[in-house]
């Protein structure tokens, strides 16, 4: 049983003798009844006590100078907290019916006439004290019940949340299991094609056409594997917030035209009707990441549109936004799947032959990359068989003023001389051959120290440096090249399998001009070399 505070009784009487007599009489029973008595000499003093304490009952003299008992009672019951305190009027005069009515209208519950009969006073007081104790006990029980209800409600909410989180986790685990199975499928298909093509090239008697077709298959499937790896890494970076954007003003319409031309050139849109309707619209963005957005949206449209279907790409511009949209007339999206299409590991069921492949993570990456650019992405479909449309909205910026590009002087061939520092023998040989085929004079080295020696003797315009080198790593190579007076002005491009924002920061701090993530597409490499070509002849 919780401890109950002692009830209080207030006695208000202007006559000192009467006040003393009443309080003394009540004090006789205070220990027995467990209450406390407080005295007041006027109505005003009685009101002050009511402001400070809660009372079980008030004994109030009717005839007092200044504020009489009726006025005091009315003032007490006007206050919300004291409105229900029972008041017993005490008077030496026999009250007529009008006085009784006036008293009851002001909240009186009873009358006592002086001289007060102790037994009657005791009986009346006992009732109100007992009632006050019961009320206080009920209030405390109500507070405890309310607290317990609050605790139970919080517990119920927590349990409900845990159940929902567990269900979400189970769905995610199921989706991850399906994703891993799909990943194995998607990796084995191109690896199988590459292995078969490589074996075919080695067979005696294979025709020149067979060799050429095998090489095309190897190139195509290698690019496909690269896209799978890139998507996996980029999604991980995006989810952890570690993608670093290299922003610059760019025209979305031009980017769309370039992307579609690449798709047509590589044959990825063969058998589809692909149209472009784009007006120039400039945004402040990372060209590589925006190309990634476009590629993923195009891949998604191709994947879920039957051969012979139509895909329409558009770019619209208003005062604040550039809107990029990819619309297809493919299999469409169900109402249940539509809200989840941008979630990780969510993938619609394709009725096609899956020639386009995919892991179901491209749209998740699209959403994150759009958000990093300060934009939004949305999807719409009228249902199965009705096609779909994906829309990207990006903040518009003003078209930049044209800048005169500096005239770059290089070797007599018009191309910069290149030093390749790469410890992987196959990778070094293949990249050296490719650069030579593009007309670059190339020297190469297998480790960092050898690379520094070749750089000091060859003095190339540009060095492609692998970061994970034996002996000294690529960071140290860059620092030593920058510290050497003869190689300080050399352009440096880092080649690495590490693509996090922290990796790029370390690369730039070490003195590199650019950071390329392996495997590097040859066209991307050519653009990078072109952007880093020296503006003046080296000394």
Automatic annotation (TrEMBL):
Transmembrane segments: none annotated. Residues 8-129, 417-533 form the Response regulatory domain. It is an enzyme of class 2 (transferase). Residues 128-162 form a coiled coil. Keywords: Coiled coil, Kinase, Phosphoprotein, Transferase. Its EC number is 2.7.13.3. GO terms for cellular component: plasma membrane. The modification 4-aspartylphosphate is found at residues 61, 466. GO terms for molecular function: phosphorelay sensor kinase activity. Residues 182-398 form the Histidine kinase domain. The keyword Transferase applies. Pfam families: HATPase_c, HisKA, Response_reg. SMART domains: HATPase_c, HisKA, REC. It catalyses: ATP + protein L-histidine = ADP + protein N-phospho-L-histidine. It is found in: Cell inner membrane. It is a multi-pass membrane protein. PANTHER family: HYBRID SIGNAL TRANSDUCTION HISTIDINE KINASE C, TWO-COMPONENT HISTIDINE KINASE. This is histidine kinase. The lineage of its organism: Bacteria, Pseudomonadati, Pseudomonadota, Betaproteobacteria, Burkholderiales.
